[in-house]
Amino acid sequence: APDESWIPARLREFLDGAADKSLREVQLVIRPHPSNRDIYNKILKEGIWIIPSDPRLPDRPEDSQLFYDTVYYSLAAIDGVNTSAIIDTVIMGKPGIVVITAEYEKTQGQTEYFRNLLSEEMLERASLDFSFLEAVRKLLAGKDDKKAARERFVENYIRPLGRNVSAGEAVLAIGEKLIREKMENAL
Known about the structure:
Layout (H helix, E strand, L loop, with lengths): L5 H11 L4 H4 L3 E3 L17 E3 L10 H12 L4 E3 L3 H9 L4 E5 L4 H4 L3 H8 L4 E4 L2 H11 L6 H12 L8 H20 L1
Parallel strand pairs: 1-2, 3-4, 4-5
């Protein structure tokens, strides 16, 4: 999306206008791609943060740690267009709220990838209306009824060989299995 900055700006408006003080105190942290960071400068205000604050590519170990810490100490990932943010947070065990918008219907409802993520029923769904406040209120209250679905997603699609198996070990195991099968079929 060329400029999706209006989504967090609108979400901030809903939070700021909430009767519930705990909702007004929620902070939004935006983690943009470094090449698309500047579009968010126009919406920066109290309650909206950009992390990391500098525009360079996050390619140092401390950048990875900042990403992890930002997600670990957050309530949930909120996403409207880019599903990679949701997958990253699901892997870390965090809830996600996907904001459905008519403006991004092609990248949401018409892409198989996005539809598949939604079909897993592991994300809270909201629109750019008060349903967003309800989703945040629910998570603030500790009601996370999508946790088991997120764990199943990680188990089935991210770590099918178990959480203690690294991606490299998984690729090696699959490669060895394919080679064995090829050799057995050749005999």
